[in-house]
Amino acid sequence: MRFRPCIDIHNGKVKQIVGGSLKDQGNQASENFVSEQDASYYAQLYEEQGITGGHVILLNKEGTEFYEETKRQALLALSTYPGGLQVGGGIDAENACEFLTAGASHVIVTSYVFRDHVFYENLDKLVTTVGKQRLTLDLSCRKRDGKYYIVTDRWQKFTDEEVTEELLHHLSEYCDEFLIHAVDVEGKASGIETELVELLAKMKDFPVTYAGGVGSFEDLELLKKLGNNHVDVTIGSALDLFGGKMKFEDVLAVCRR
After folding, report:
1. Which residues contact 205 (CB under 8 A, 6 or more apart)?
2. pLDDT category, 30, cuts 50, 70, 90?
3. C-alpha angle 18/147/156, rounded to 5°?
4. DSSP reduced 3-state for 231
5. Which of 5, 37, 75, 85 could serve as a FRET partner for 105 with CA atoms 20 to 30 Å apart?
6. Paired sense of beta strands 147-152 and 157-162, if any
7. pLDDT for 254 beyond 70
8. C-alpha span between 224 and 216 (Å, rounded)
9. How far is CA 43 from CA 11, 49, 188, in A?
10. Backbone torsion region of residue 41, taken as left when φ is above 0, otherwise alpha when ψ lies between -120 and 50, otherwise beta
11. DSSP readout, 107-145?
């Protein structure tokens, strides 16, 4: 299991928010933590620890009041740790290369691919533009009627795409890895979505990162067990770097053993 760090940026600040609370109107979100440090601070810290594959996420929509400052912070992180971080948030075939040129190892994409039933058309555009090896698909999902469905548009809109083993294997042909947000527990540190982790564990030979609900070392150990030690993990609000109780160094030790 690898630890995948995060740098979530909203209104130009590194933050941790409650999943599903993000709204473009008024640039609002329920906040768990707002950092006094800029994005480069965290990028440098992750580089010093030799951690690769972290996620820089822009949480403001392009064209809104704070987008440019949020983007500036994201580019600052990428330039601080070139090749060590991935970037997501409003990525499409038109702007992906800008972020890759700025230092991102991969672009992370959700809404552009899964919105408005243009699934494979836009996915093909991305693969053609950036290459499969530089694309991470974020299959952010929520549970409905006992099944997990991909959600888009700030995690508010359900698609018809059910997250199944068959879908995961199929989409793995188009990307280099998956980032899976369990949106209903994201930012709540209330425990992991065990059924989802067990599903992800079936992707034995493909990189998968789980995010959502890890709030204790018991949660982390459970994720390690259910994920057969090959489902990677992102921890946000529960981490001491972001005001939580889980010590960063201890989390790294558990993941690395």
Report:
1. none
2. low
3. 35
4. strand
5. 37
6. antiparallel
7. yes
8. 13
9. 18, 10, 24
10. alpha
11. EEESHHHHGGG-HHHHHHHHHHHH-GGGEEEE--EEEET
**Alpha helices (H) in 36-95, listed in sequence order:** 39-48, 67-80
| Residue listed under structure tokens 């601070």 | 41
pLDDT tens, position by position, 56-80: 999 999 999 999 999 999 999 999 9
**Residue matched to tokens 């989409």:** 171
Q: For residue 47, what are the CA distances in angstroms to 85, 178, 233? A: 9, 22, 17
Q: Among 23-32, 51-60, 153-162, where is mean pLDDT lowest?
A: 23-32
Question: Could you report the per-residue pLDDT of 143-168, keeping only the tens digit for each?
Answer: 999 999 999 887 778 988 999 999 99
| 19 pLDDT higher than 80 | no
Tokens of 67: 């987008």
**Cα–Cα distance measured from residue 220 to residue 218, given in angstroms and rounded to the nearest whole number:** 5
CB 250, CB 21: distance < 8 Å: no
Structure tokens at 115: 């919105």
How many residues does this entry show for the chain?
257
The two structure tokens encoding residue 9 = 């940026």
Who has greater pLDDT, 169 or 114? 169
Cβ count near 166 (within 10 Å): 9
Q: Given this model, what pLDDT does residue 114 score?
A: 84
Distance of CA 92 to the CA centre of its chain: 16
Query: Is the Cβ–Cβ distance between 12 and 71 less than 8 Å?
Result: no
User: Which is nearest to 181 in space by CA: 43, 14, 22, 12?
Assistant: 22
Mean pLDDT along residues 204-219: 96
Dig out the tokens for 75 from the structure: 């580019």
| pTM of structure | 0.92
Question: Residue type at 55?
Answer: H
Place of tokens 């469905």: 149
